[in-house]
Amino acid sequence: AKAERGQAEAAQRVPFVIYGIKCPDTGLVRYVGKTVCLPHRMSGHLTARQACAPVNRWIQGLLKDGKRPNFVVLERTTQGVAAHREDYWIAHIRKETPESALNVEPRGWS
Known about the structure:
Distance between the termini: 37 Å
Shape: elongated
Helix content: 40-55%
Oligomer: single chain
Strand content: 15-25%
């Protein structure tokens, strides 16, 4: 039990990045997500072919027009609080620029 508790505590300290995807035209953050590996996640967004998610449709439209979104680190955190911090940033972006936010729900569900 002690070893399992130690593993669970270690997992909570895994580094996470809260990132934003900015519009190349306006400079506004349109989407907020979280990941352990930002380069891998960026690649996933840029090559996603599922048009069901608003962020994917937007990115595919940019790429079709010869543009590329900008990825920015909003915060470095740990797994234990990553979902909470992602929710914070989604709410912040939706409050500041509700017309441009692509996150439909908290925790990156879109």
